[in-house]
Amino acid sequence: MTIPRLLVVDDDEETRSMLTQFLQQNGFIAHGAQTEAEIRDRMQAGRVDLILLDVMLGSESGVEICARLRREQDVPIILVSALSQDHQRMAGYEVGADDYVAKPFNPDLLLARVRAVLQRASRSASLVYRRQLALFRFGGWSYDGKRDEVLSPQGFQVALSQRESGLLKVFLANPHIPLRREEIQAALSERLAAASGAESEGTGRAIDMLVGRLRSKIESDPKDPQMLRTARGVGYVLAVDVTEESPA
């Protein structure tokens, strides 16, 4: 399960930091930016699943930035502004914004709007994902998403439990990104609930034990892991490149 990566764009450092931390605490990967140039740098550096874009960015206009981005790609954009009259909202929607949130706002309401936009955006993409259950290669290993099979570098199949398989998918979707235990827990809970209708167990200790079990199956030396490493002060990171191939 890919953990959504959000970009918070605001020229006020305090607001940007507060929103970024709030989103991180609620299971997202969130980064900050304050100019259009920084937005583009972030998007070139890696996947961005949603942009929270302030309308008034010093000398730059969030509405104009939204219009330019929308001409180039379909990343979901939520405009955030103290300007909340109907014609101002309509200006945002007319340039392709997916939603418009007026300041001041309740953080929980903003969180609900973010999740709603991500859910709408993922519906068609999730259907494509199900049709293209890819073959992933990582550190000499391979994971066949269509068959839900893991093969060692020597070609031996390794049996994984449902939770171990789910954990591996989380890491394969987020290579080289240090993931907090809370982020892993949130991704696993969503995936397993969708698959079985049940919620996953979710303490930090349970995640540690699950990572340990996965290491015992895919690491040549689980006590000195080279792929699934501990990110000190954060959580865990898949420290190898992942390539994705279309199914045969």
Number of domains: 2
Largest sheet: 5 strands, parallel
- The termini sit apart by 22 Å
Order of helices and strands: EHEHEEEHEHEHEEEEHEHHEEE
Q: Based on Cα principal axes, name the global outline.
A: elongated
Radius of gyration: 20 Å
Average pLDDT, rounded to a whole number, is 84
| Main structural class | alpha/beta
**CATH-assigned fold name of the largest domain:** Rossmann fold
Could you tell me the strand content as a percent range?
Answer: 15-25%
CATH superfamily of the largest domain: Response regulator
- Main sheet: which strands, in order across? 2-1-3-6-7
CATH second-level architecture of the largest domain: 3-Layer(aba) Sandwich
Number of helices: 8
- State the helical fraction: 40-55%
Can you count the beta strands? 15
CATH class of the largest domain: Alpha Beta
Low-pLDDT ranges: 124-132, 193-201
Structure description:
The chain has 248 residues and is α/β, with parallel strands linked by helices. The chain folds into two domains: 5-128, 3-Layer(aba) Sandwich (Rossmann fold), CATH 3.40.50; 132-245, Winged helix-like DNA-binding domain superfamily/Winged helix DNA-binding domain (Arc Repressor Mutant, subunit A, Orthogonal Bundle). It is built from eight helices and 15 strands. The strands form four sheets. The protein has a five-stranded parallel sheet, sandwiched between helices. Strands 11-10-9-8-15 form a five-stranded antiparallel sheet, with no helix packed on it. The protein is elongated. Mean pLDDT is 84; it is low at 124-132 and 193-201.
